[in-house]
Amino acid sequence: MAVVRLRAPLSELAGGRREVELEGATVAEVLRALERAHPDITGWIIDERGKIREHVNVFVNRESGQEDTTVAPGDRLHVIPAISGG
Amino acid sequence: MTQLLVGTKKGLFVLGGDNGSFQVESRSFAGEPVEFAARDARTGRYFACVTSAFYGPKVFVADDPGGEWQQAEGIALPESEEKALVRMWCVVPGEEDGLLYAGGDPGVLFESRDGGLTWELNKPFWEQPTRPEWGPGAGGMCLHSIATWPGDPSRLALAISAVGVWLSDDGGETWRHGNQGLVPRYLQEEAREDTFDLCVHNLHRHPAKPERLFMQFHGGVYRSDDAGESWIDIGTGLPSDFGFPLVIDPDDADSAFVIPLVADLDRVTPDGRVRVYETRDAGASWTPRGDGLPAEDAYLTILRQAFGRSGSGETMELYFGATSGDVFGSRDAGGTWFTAAANLPPVHSVRVA
If DSSP codes are grouped into helix, strand and coil, which group holds residue B190? Predict the structure, then answer.
C-alpha cells in the first residue's frame, strides 16, 4: 500500500485524515482509490479528463509525479497545491 | 435590512445594512474566487459558484451564508479525454418547485430538481451538433444568463459568450438559436451573417411581459419583443454601447439599466465618471443616473454579474460592484447613489439576498 499525504482542504474532505493508505500501481490508480475511499474528494484532484488539475502537484517520494508515474508499496505521495495565483 | 451577496476574487462577502450604511457580516471561501452568489427566495437557500485556482469549479449551498457550506453534487462534465468544467457562472431558480438552473463554462447548462443539492447536465444542450465549432469570449465560454418564463417551465432563453442566444420551448429538450438582428461588429462584415460567434454579455427577460428581453452585447444594447427570436438595436443615446451587466425594473416593461464602459479595448467607465444609464421607453432614450457616484478620475470596470436589484418601482434598490473593490447602491431606483462598501477584493458579482 502507498501512503497519500493530504493538506487542508483535501484532508477535511477525507474525514480529517492527513494520511491515507491506498492500493494502486500508478499515481492515477492511487488517486482513484482515494476517491473511492473518500467520495467527497472526487473532482478536487483529478478532473473529468482523468488529469491531475493544472495547479495541483503530486510528488512520489519527493519526485514530481504524473498520472502514469509508477507507485510501489510503501511509496509516499504528497498532494500539494502549486505555488501560483494572484 | 438589506443583505448583499458580493462575490469577489477573494471570497464571498455578505454585507448587511440599512439606510445606506453597510457592514461586512461574514466572509466565506477566503482566498477563493467566487464568481456568483445568490439566494433562492422560494427556499431561503444560498448558492455560491466558487472556482478554486487549485481544485476546480464547484457550487456550494448553505442555509446560512455565514455558516457551513455544502458542496452540491453533480456539477461536472461527463468523463472524457476532451473537456473539463472550467467555471460556474450563475444559478437561477426555475418555474417549478425545487427546479433550478446553473450555467457554466464551456457553455454548459445544469438542472437541479431538489432545490440545488444535486445537479444533472442538460444533455441535449451538451450534445448540440455545432458545439465543436463554438468559441469562447475573453472570459471563457461562459453560459452566464438563464431567462425563465414566469409560470411556464417549458420556455427558456440562454445566453453564452460567445455563442449567442439559445431558446427552448420544451423545457430544455430541444434548442435553437435566437440571434436574428444581432450585429457582431468585432467580426469582418462578410463573416457576420449567419454566424453564431456572438458575444452576449448579459440577458434579462421582463417578468410582466415575458416576450420582452433586454441584452447587453459585446458592442450593442438590444431589445427583443418576440421572446428572443429577433433583436432591435437600442444603443443610440448611450455614451458607449459596450458594457457588461443589465438590470430591469419589474414594474416597468419598458425599463432597463446599463453601465457603459468605453469600448472593448478600453473597459473602463467613460470620461472618468461612473454613471448608470436608464431607459423608461424601451430604449428609445437613455438618461444618466450618477448623483452620488464618482464623478472624476474614476475608471472602473463593472463585470457582467456585478449588478443586482431588489424591489421595484420608485423604491427599487440597485447595487453594483467594480473590480476596484467598491460597491455602490441606490434606494430610489438610481435617483441617488451611495457607497455601500469600499476596499473589497475585485468584485465579480452582486446580488440582493
Answer: helix
